[in-house]
Amino acid sequence: MLKVVSIKDDLVSRLLKREHRGEDLEAGVREIIEQVKEYGDQGFWSATKRFDHADMSAAQMQVTEDEIKEAYAATAPDLLESLRLARDNISEFHARQHFQTWFQPGEDGELLGQIYRPLERVGIYVPGGTAAYPSSVLMNALPAKVAGVKEIIMVTPPRTDGTVLPLVLVAAAEAGVTKIFKAGGVQAVAGLAYGTESISKVDKIVGPGNIYVTIAKRLVFGLVDIDMLAGPSEIVIVADEEADHVLVAADLLSQAEHDPMAAAILVTPDEKLAQSVRDEVEKQLAVLPRKEIAAAAIKNYGAAVVTGSMQEAVDLANQLAPEHLELYVKDPFSWLGKIRNAGAVFLGAYASEPVGDYFAGPNHVLPTGGTARFFSPLSVEDFMKRTSVIYTTKEALQKWGPHIVRLAEDEGLDAHARAIARRLERL
Fold first, then answer.
1. Does 370 reside within a domain?
2. Which of 212, 235, 351, 427 counts the most CB atoms within 10 A of its CB?
3. How far is CA 427 from the centre of its chain?
């Protein structure tokens, strides 16, 4: 049952300290990474057969063009239409994220600038297991495509018969994915990071996964770049007395059904609303297909926190720094400016969290576990790199040189200072 608590309850403290680092699992993750690093395709396939329990040979791990054609044939036309509309919305949103090369000349002819270039090759991880996520394919691949990445390699866990959900393959084709491998977990991350005979080493790995995937991404960071260390999904709903308790309960459960460790939290100054939402969550849970998962999440990290005021509710939301934050209040725009920490903010009664998950356009790969204090949603910028450009004329060096020499000598780096001093002598 959803717990109704005060802001001073121990549960609130536990929610604020929520983290899932999994140090106790790290040794096992390292072992799988080393197996793929040493044995390449064979290690990759062996781990996939062991953990994904898929009935397929090593030669069947890469998705073929025929499999993609079959996936299109198996996809209902109306479902394909919805997928394509979502694709267009996501593409258009990310196309507005401009990162342009620039140069700025100085008064003595010097030139400073910054060059933006897309990464050459990226890997996207698309979760499978208890559910398959075509929407995650779009959210991970489309920003890379907009950025101009040449090669997008996707990994996703297969079903036990060695196949991938047709709509996942269709989404990959629609989003511009160039290669797809039927593998998940640590071995998929290791294959992307180190490369195998079949998988080219990538520059960056993006996309959320379970705790094993998260640990693997942390361990290969530095060899490749990663987007963020994602944890279980979470939603915080800040609501006032005018909120519909039925809709609030539905939105809490929309996140609770993801994972037994997902967090679903209502924060409100209205105790009557909190009690109504608690009762409604129980009612809706009874008929939810993923009832066991959602019920565990509500038990582990579900709460209706009653605050003394709306300002106190917003302050707690900022402390929680949630992945998804709904402002379900009568004038959400008046409170938007007070939100400092959130992956995505949903305003008003009609901006339910699934609107962002599937269709609106902003990315649904979001920071979790309070990391919205310093991480941002996945964007086009995540698939680009910056190079600084410096051109110096003799006139500029004559002005700058003495200062550079002075600073280098103060740091004890005499060779730095002499590289400039000798140029000044020749001038």
1. no
2. 235
3. 53
